[in-house]
Amino acid sequence: MLDIQLLRTDLNSTVEKLATRRYDFPMDRFNRLETERKKIQIQTEDLQAKRNAASKKIGQAKSKGEDAAEFFTEVENLGDKLKQSSTKLEQIQTELQKILLEVPNLPHDSVPIGHDEASNQEIRRWGNIHSFDFKIKDHVSIAEELQLVDFETAAKLSGARFCVMTDGLARLHRALAQFMLDTHVHSHGYTEAYTPYLVNHDSLRGTGQLPKFEEDLFAVNTGEKAADDSTHSTKFFLIPTAEVTLTNIVRDKIVASNSLPLKFVAHTPCFRSEAGSYGRDTRGFIRQHQFDKVELVHIVHPDYSYAALEELVGHAETILQKLELPYRVMTLCTGDMGFSAAKTYDIEVWLPAQNTYREISSCSNCESFQARRMQARYRNENGKPTLLHTLNGSGLAVGRTLVAVLENYQNSDGSVTIPEVLRPYMHGLDCLTVPDRQ
RNA sequence: GGAGAAGUGACCGAGUGGUUGAAGGUGCACGCCUGGAAAGCGUGUGUGCGGUUUAUACCGUACCGCGGGUUCGAAUCCCGCCUUCUCCGCCA
Questions:
Q1: Is residue A234 predicted with pLDDT exceeding 80?
Q2: Mind listing the pLDDT tens digit for each residue in A15-40?
Q3: A26-101 placed in CATH 3.40.630.30
Q4: Nucleotide closest in space to A44 (CA vs C1')
Q5: Using an 8 Å Cβ cutoff, are A296 and A365 in contact?
Q6: Going by DSSP bridges, is the β-strand pair A262-271/A343-351 parallel, antiparallel, or unpaired?
Q7: So what CATH class is A117-432?
Q8: Å separating the CA of residue A103 from the C1' of nucleotide B51
Q9: Looking at this predicted complex, what is its ipTM?
């Protein structure tokens, strides 16, 4: 959420900045509501003040045993007027809030301006792209030929965009997650967390998924029958990322400033409905309804959030370097950034079968955008509660890392070599081959 | 799921309709005292929103788990919900 003061005092330039994100701020409606709000709020609070004063006098008179009749007549007509006024005020504020909750974050000055991904800027590349002296396969063919994945069974169990992995592939998947967690906890100083996969409405509003992106989420009702269908309300949502739980840890809190920065890491499944992406990446592990991710979250003092962003990207890059997977780092342009981000770096890993780089991590500084929604604060030098800055990044998406390993480590005989750093997690397995199922 | 109890400020804790934003204590900050410290003494110590203001500041309003209701007036009364604790049941 943006600071409403910014919209009040500097509306034009704010609206211009939002336009670079392809967001059309409803200026006229906002202005109309604001004017109205000011009038009605002053009126309402004035009526409340009158009522409070009269009530106080009644109390005083009664405690002295005096007659309070004259004060009663004073308040007589106040009730209706006050009710009318406060109802109106509530309506206006609800509408303003609705507008405000749907406005995306302002891009940082260093973010390139552009309409779509074509304007993203490459900052650096790492690793040598391996050249193969045989005809390479994509990750689906590799895994299917090794009989380690079964999309048909997954479709029977659940539907499209799910998978069943078995044997060495399932273990490799687990190994990747463990390796990432261990690295972030032991080398990068993160606090490991285990958090719920089901969350309430408030948490999703805190990080910005709600109210605008409800269709991207899976909602869950409890098994009990609703006594009255019309009032039945969703109780939980499945998390689309652990960013939601890790960031909301500080919702409605004033964090002791000497405990900053907070750095959390968690490995969780993520659930996304992928509404609006029908037909894209239908093959394989790239875009699934359920996927695992190791998520990194920083909660920091506002002065240090951009330094923290560089650190965060570095931590994600370390994983790819240790796995010896080539990648590049991109700065997303204004038109390609997510709703809550002020600045985002995407890390894209090299996928030989697609002959291109594909997103494997997204690291964002949300500045105070989420903190304002969450009322997440610390006490500044003067003891005044001040909004924190929040950052999040994938470190990394496990399923996509698995894809990258399969494709980059494939051999001419169809087997896949296990990267060196994962061997300790593989129980002696150093190569994926067709399993011997007697 | 059943029965009972409870949710008040950074923390503990009083408060069952009227000068209560909230006694008292702890903590914290500042000052006095001290050679220094402790003890002691004194003063201060919530947040959101709005208005006036360059700002400091001042004024108004809301907030005692959350949401409604009753009333001129609600931390206090009524209704619904949530959470925690104890006992029982069920369960990985």
A1: no
A2: 999 999 999 999 999 999 999 999 99
A3: no
A4: B61
A5: no
A6: unpaired
A7: alpha beta
A8: 26
A9: 0.86
